[in-house]
């Protein structure tokens, strides 16, 4: 760690990994809450805080795996296409039939897939091996006991663990969750993220930007990123360049958010409201991180709520959110903080600043295995940001990114 002097502030310089570890060090999952499984559509993406155990057997009753005829297999001994066994049909058992039925020896029931097996039957003959008769049926093949049956409890027994703790609920978990007789499950709530854009130059989205003004694009972008990463957005608001106003806004948001993100106002200029509001607080620090973009960063807590103070350039804000805020918010949600990456080879040379880990905007070649840089790498270049498909991670020691080199890249589509 080095100490640098920037704009009159003594600032520590940390490597990207040091800083990321620092902001993750105190992150813990939010207190778990119990939620009814009937609300499963709202639970997708949440992580189970405790294992889920079934209170029932699955299947709940022995049933037919085929459309066909429920039989006593011994009645079919010797059946062949030339010497079919003919049995009277006692009636139909459709799926959803709740009657308790019995099979008399020497007879059969026509039965549908998923319908309960009548007592006494030990096999189902699929309809394709019969003439499909309704009053009586010709069965052309002998079948062993157990054929085409789904036995009660063969899938899940009462007390079985059907989902371990730490499962991030996906559509594939829904059937067993809803079928296992459980009313409520314990999950980590979705972190509520609040976003505050700073800057007297900002105008509301949709308003024309006059001379010296810019549209607040960070707020809506960070809100969209938060949502895409699976978090709730508690607020997206603007504060000017007054440190007092910013402090009041942040303090108010601690009541509604689990994590607060500010953008702008952390660098070396004369009017840096975030820096002015929190410098001197024991619970806050401003550092320089050896990364590009995103060098000036601040992190701390206000009334126990973590606050990330991100630099204001839109590209820096986006990179800082994905690499620092999102991993911390994932920990609050009980998820793995890891930023998902893939490997790609460099298709075109570019340069990276000495001593800084670069997150370069790149596009994939058609097969998705090679990347090339796009647009200017300045952190204000909005067009290049929009055109990019991924961030390529260039290690701090590399200044020339050579063709053919393999890099880890963070795809920007499908962040959830
Ligand atoms: P700052 O970090 O406050 O010095 O801002 C750095 C640059 O990012 C300046 O050009 C700001 O105008 C711009 N900027 C800051 N906040 C936003 C925002 N919310 N939306 C768009 N641009 C911003
Ligand atoms: Mg500013």
TrEMBL record:
Required co-factor(s) are:
Mg(2+)
Q: What class of enzyme is it?
A: transferase
Q: Which reaction does it catalyse?
A: adenylyl-molybdopterin + molybdate = Mo-molybdopterin + AMP + H(+)
Output this protein's name. Answer: Molybdopterin molybdenumtransferase
Q: Which family does it belong to?
A: Belongs to the MoeA family.
Q: Which residues form the MoaB/Mog domain?
A: 194-331
For this UniProt record, the keywords arranged alphabetically read as follows: Magnesium, Metal-binding, Molybdenum, Molybdenum cofactor biosynthesis, Transferase
PANTHER family in UniProt: GEPHYRIN, MOLYBDOPTERIN BIOSYNTHESIS PROTEIN
Q: Which domain of life is it from?
A: Bacteria
Taxonomic path: Bacteria, Bacillati, Actinomycetota, Actinomycetes, Micrococcales
Q: Which InterPro entries match?
A: MoaB/Mog-like_dom_sf, MoaB/Mog_dom, MoeA-like, MoeA_C_domain_IV, MoeA_C_domain_IV_sf, MoeA_linker/N, MoeA_linker/N_sf
Q: Which Pfam families match?
A: MoCF_biosynth, MoeA_C, MoeA_N
* EC number annotated for this UniProt entry: 2.10.1.1
Record-linked Gene3D superfamilies = MoaB/Mog-like domain, MoeA, C-terminal, domain IV, Molybdopterin biosynthesis moea protein, domain 2, Molybdopterin biosynthesis moea protein, domain 3
